[in-house]
Amino acid sequence: MSSCADEHDHSGHDHDGRRHDHSHDISDAQPNNLYDRVDRQNVVALNADTSEPKIIKPWHERMDETVSVESDADDQLIIRIPFTGSIKLRSVLLKTGPGEETPTKMDIYVNEDGLDFDDVADKQPAQSFDIPQSREVGDYAVKPSKFSDVRSLTLFFPAAQGADNVRIYYIGFLGEWREIKDRPAVIIYEAQANPADHPKIPGINDGEQSNLGM
């Protein structure tokens, strides 16, 4: 099997000192790639230069730098990603940069749908990663115990590595997907009618038959 053009033997570490691997052979047909499981129409970017972020791309478009999301007012960026089911996440794929537009780190929050910039100061992320400067796609392996039932992810990029803005070209995910089935409706049957629960129709007395419809 031939290796991907952007595979390199380099690695980084998250804030817990765990190593993450930047090399990964991923094809669009591989079931672990969750591109089709992202609710892409409802992806939201806060403090972004576009209201419709298009950086959740298929794997074969990962190196395309014609489409990106850049932070707007400053170098902070939040991206909310909902899924169409429950995800057992294995890793986040990320292409950033180049150079000083690379974020310093990525904080990941699980199932925090309404998270904004005021909230992230008080909430502990499920996991954080330092991001090296590179034009390649980084594979950031997460701790399985913290990402076993993911309905949505919020990615917070708190600062750039020297630039006024951060830039993201590609975000992808590896893991397992399962459908969330709706709970069955609970139907309560009335065992015996209680006259007190049923108001009388005006003009109909007790014991008389209704002539309506006759």
UniProtKB/TrEMBL annotation:
SUPFAM superfamilies: Galactose-binding domain-like
InterPro entries from the UniProt entry: Galactose-bd-like_sf, PITH1-like, PITH_dom, PITH_dom_sf
GO cellular component: cytoplasm; nucleus
Residues annotated as domain PITH: 23-193
Top-level taxonomic group: Eukaryota
UniProt-listed Pfam families: PITH
Record field: compositional bias (Basic and acidic residues): 1-27
Region described as Disordered: spans on this chain: 1-35
Family, per entry: Belongs to the PITHD1 family.
PANTHER family (alphabetical): AD039 HT014 THIOREDOXIN FAMILY TRP26 (PTHR12175), PITH DOMAIN-CONTAINING PROTEIN 1 (PTHR12175:SF1)
Protein name, as recorded: PITH domain-containing protein
